[in-house]
Design brief:
By secondary structure, the protein is an alpha/beta fold. The protein is 29% helix and 25% strand. The chain has one domain: Maf protein. It has 5 helices and 7 strands. It has a 7-stranded mixed β-sheet with strand order 2-1-3-4-5-6-7. It binds inosinic acid.
C-alpha cells in the first residue's frame, strides 16, 4: 500500500486540524492522507491576511509558509458573504465587529445591518478557498460555497461563527441545528476540501 500523502496545515488552530481530519475521513476520495499542523508556525515570520479575496489570502498564506517549510503545505480562508451588504462581512468575517469581538457580537452586528432587508435581500453564502503548495509553488487552489439565508434571530447551539443565523433551506435548519457530520457534507469547507483531495489524487 502506498504511504499516505502528508499535508501540513498552515495554522496553529488544533480545532481546525481536527475538522480537516474529519473532512478527510468523510471525503469519499480514495486517497490516504495524513494531516498535521505546521509546527512552530508562531516562530516563523507571520503572513498578513489582508487581500481582498479569499483565494488570494489562502494562496498567499500557503505560499508564504511553503517557502519556509518542506513538504506539502495547505492553507484556507473562509467567510460569509451577503450580496445585499455589498459582500460584507466577506474577507473581514472574523474581525467584522472588531478584533476582540465574540461570535454573538459579530452576529448582532450582522443582524443590525440586515434590519429592513427582506426576501432575496437575505440571501447569503459561505465561501472557502484552500490552496495547496510546495516549496513556494502553488499545486492547486480550490474554492467552493454553500448558499443560504440570514435569519432574523439565532437558532441552535452547534457549529461556530455565523452558523446560528445561517439558514440552510435544503434541510430547513440553521448550520447550528444540524450535526457536525451533516454540516461537513454540505459546508463550503467540506466541498472545497473534497475538491482539493480529488485534485491531489489526480496528481499522485
Ligand atoms: P477563517 O477562515 O478561519 O479565518 O474564518 C473566518 C471567519 O469566517 C470565522 O471566524 C467565522 O466568523 C466565519 N466562518 C467561516 N466558516 C464558517 C462556518 O462554517 N460557520 C460559521 N462561520 C464561519
Amino acid at each position: 500500500m502506498p504511504a499516505p500523502a502528508k499535508l501540513f496545515l498552515a495554522s496553529s488552530n488544533r480545532g481546525k486540524l481536527s475538522e480537516y481530519r474529519m473532512l478527510a475521513m468523510a471525503s469519499g476520495v480514495s486517497l490516504a492522507v495524513e494531516l498535521a499542523l505546521l509546527l512552530g508556525l508562531d516562530k516563523l515570520p507571520e503572513f498578513e491576511e489582508n487581500a481582498p479575496t479569499f483565494a488570494e489570502n489562502a494562496a498567499g498564506k500557503a505560499l508564504h509558509y511553503s517557502r519556509l517549510w518542506d513538504g506539502l503545505v495547505f492553507a484556507d480562508d473562509s467567510g460569509l458573504v451577503v450580496p445585499a451588504l455589498g459582500g460584507a462581512p466577506g474577507v473581514h468575517s472574523a474581525r467584522y465587529a472588531g478584533p476582540r469581538a465574540t461570535n454573538s457580537q459579530r452576529i448582532e452586528k450582522l443582524l443590525g445591518e440586515m434590519r429592513g432587508k427582506t426576501g432575496a435581500e437575505r440571501a447569503a453564502y459561505f465561501v472557502c478557498a484552500i490552496a495547496l503548495t510546495e516549496h513556494g509553488r502553488a499545486k492547486a487552489i480550490v474554492t467552493d460555497r454553500v448558499e443560504g439565508e440570514i435569519l432574523e434571530a439565532p437558532r441552535g447551539s452547534g457549529g461556530f461563527g455565523y452558523d446560528p443565523v445561517f439558514y440552510f433551506p435544503a434541510l430547513g435548519k440553521t448550520f447550528a441545528e444540524i450535526p457536525a457530520e451533516e454540516k461537513n457534507q454540505r459546508s463550503h469547507r467540506g466541498k472545497a476540501f473534497r475538491r482539493l483531495l480529488s485534485s491531489l489524487s489526480s496528481m499522485l
